[in-house]
Design goal:
With 267 residues, this protein is mainly α. 77% of the residues lie in helices and 0% in strands. The model has no long low-confidence stretch (mean pLDDT 85).
Length: 267
């Protein structure tokens, strides 16, 4: 029990340190504010008039997809921050302190939950400005946001392992982009999965980015009545399938990242 209490206390200190770092770097605040607004406005006005979605406006179809894409890219803050700390030797300072080894990673991932929550608030306001609406009740809408944040938290453990494996922040940025970019585009984030060619359609149907997008559309009420049910089980039960991925990602990558961190601090 003392070990658990110590882990929670140490993780909260690390999380506070990361949040203070975000607040004290104005350029990061600008990125947090402007980037999601840019995504919403560009996609809504560039593609809004050229893509037709039966039964609803493209903007209502689009915004939950941009939510999913942005929180996924937001999870890279975990790996980028860890890679930066490794490169600058901050981890060596942590190693000399009487603190839990797992606290550095746990605190990092928890602080990025706050970052993603702030990003979602800003994006929701931008989405409302361009015509997106929440058609469900407040409880369902809250569940939709929670699903997005929980999935981003789980994926941040993948990014934490990447951040520990790469030698620099620059390498991490390039590697993470090559992973996340195809995940967000071979999905139903910006177009319906039924419009994709054979193999890509199957990948999109079982892509967790598609299911977290579908789940958020469901909870926000952005799936119009009368829409045919998807063929794949994953999209028929998007919240369940997304939570399965959350359990798998945390269950696999949290121990791997922690073990890798332990080996790194022993060098």
């Amino acid at each position: 029990m003392n070990a658990v209490v110590g882990l929670v206390a140490d993780s909260s200190v690390i999380a506070k340190r990361n949040l203070l770092k975000l607040v004290r770097m104005p350029e990061m605040i600008v990125f947090v504010i402007l980037s999601p607004i840019m995504f919403v406005l560009l996609f809504a006005y560039v593609f809004g008039g050229s893509i037709q979605i039966e039964g609803t406006s493209y903007r209502e179809f689009l915004v939950p997809g941009i939510f999913a894409q942005t929180v996924l890219f937001g999870s890279t803050f975990t790996g980028m921050g860890i890679a930066d700390d490794m490169q600058k030797g901050i981890i060596n300072r942590f190693r000399s302190l009487p603190m839990s080894r797992a606290a550095v990673l746990a605190g990092r991932t928890v602080s990025d939950v706050a970052y993603n929550a702030l990003t979602l608030v800003i994006m929701a306001l931008a989405g409302l400005a361009v015509g997106w609406r929440i058609r469900s009740n407040p409880i369902d809408a809250l569940i939709g946001f929670v699903v997005l944040i929980v999935f981003a938290y789980a994926f941040s453990w993948v990014m934490a392992l990447f951040g520990l494996l790469v030698p620099s922040v620059e390498v991490f940025n390039n590697a993470s982009f090559m992973v996340i970019f195809p995940m967000t585009f071979i999905a139903n984030t910006f177009v319906q999965e039924s419009t994709l060619p054979g193999p890509l359609k199957v990948i999109a149907e079982w892509n967790p980015v598609s299911t977290v997008t579908q789940a958020s559309r469901h909870w926000f009420g952005n799936i119009p009545d009368g829409t045919p049910a998807p063929d794949a089980w994953s999209l028929q039960h998007p919240t369940t399938y997304t939570m399965i991925w959350v359990v798998v990602l945390v269950g696999v990558f949290a121990p791997l990242a922690t073990a890798r961190y332990r080996r790194s601090v022993k060098k």
